[in-house]
Design a protein that fits this description.
Blueprint (H helix, E strand, L loop, with lengths): L14 E5 L13 E5 L5 H13 L3 E9 L9 H12 L8 E6 L14 H12 L4 E6 L5 H13 L7 E9 L12 H12 L2 H13 L3 E10 L5 H18 L2 E4 L16 H8 L2
Parallel strand pairs: 1-2, 1-8, 2-3, 3-4, 4-5, 5-6, 6-7, 7-8
Helix pairs in contact: 2-3, 5-7, 6-7
């Protein structure tokens, strides 16, 4: 399967996120890579759909193993290991990559664990999936101090099973683009996007990751907007796509909906997004 190109510049998002519990997981034409969001539920619930997607020849990334947003407060390594084994069980032979560590930098949730707990987490997943690609997935690239910590963690995990670092790029334009009466939405929106998520900052993050000897990707790209901000929204998606294409990295359209449904939360349907960007 060939990824559907989204721009005349040949930048594209070859990956999209599948979130269970909604009907939009039925539409995957043209996508050979999927990030499968496994926040809740069990492998018994998810496995039939995952098996179908795998049988269609798709590469699947499991999201997420450990994250500060939903992990319990572990009292020790044994609890951490048991939690990880439960999260990754039942997908052998189906999941090709794992987001093992997601938004874990600086969280107090892991204070009771030894300093090298991230290495142990990677080793547990590696034992269960020896051929899988393992990722650290982080956000806040506009916070230089935070991102320095992310890169420091990535460097400490070199040789410990980590394959790469994913960069999250989430932008919410709703209420943020106050257009003057005579301003064209596209031009003004494109100007404001420079400050909301500067392309050079994203490029720099990807370059610094690759400078460590790790793989890089845009792991989560979403742009929420009101209907009146659609041109600015398209400009943002195009900006991220061009950065990914220029850097030679994968990019994942994080939230999208069945084109037959009304878009929710300001998100365009994935196929509608492609059509809009193709003009």
């Amino acid at each position: 399967m060939t990824p559907k190109k989204m721009f005349s510049s040949a930048a594209y998002f070859p990956r999209a996120a599948l979130k269970f519990g909604d009907s939009y997981h039925q539409q995957f034409d043209g996508l050979d890579h999927l990030t499968v969001v496994l926040h809740t539920g069990s492998s018994d619930e998810y496995r039939p759909v995952i098996e179908r997607l795998k049988n269609e020849g798709r590469t699947l990334l499991g999201h997420v193993v450990v994250t500060k947003r939903s992990a319990p407060i572990f009292s020790g390594i044994d609890e951490l290991e048991a939690f990880i084994k439960q999260r990754i069980s039942g997908y052998q032979g189906l999941i090709d990559e794992w987001d093992v560590l997601v938004e874990v930098v600086g969280s107090r949730r892991f204070d009771r664990l030894p300093p090298d707990w991230t290495k142990h987490a990677l080793s547990v997943v590696r034992k269960g999936y020896p051929e899988a690609k393992l990722w650290l997935n982080e956000y806040a690239i506009k916070d230089d101090a935070y991102w320095d910590q992310v890169l420091s963690l990535g460097q400490s995990l070199l040789g410990e099973g980590l394959d790469g670092i994913g960069v999250q790029c989430h932008v919410d334009l709703r209420g943020k683009l106050r257009l003057p009466k005579r301003a064209r939405a596209f031009d003004f929106g494109a100007a404001r996007l420079v400050s909301l998520m500067p392309a050079p900052k994203v490029q720099d993050a990807l370059d610094r990751i690759k400078g460590l000897g790790l793989e890089a990707r845009l792991s989560e790209v979403s742009v929420r907007a009101n209907a009146s901000q659609r041109r600015a929204q398209m400009a943002a998606y195009e900006r991220f796509g061009k950065v990914a294409n220029s850097a030679g990295v994968d990019a994942c359209c994080w939230e999208w909906y069945d084109p037959n449904q009304t878009p929710k939360d300001g998100q365009p349907g994935y196929l509608n997004l492609i059509e809009a960007l193709n003009g």
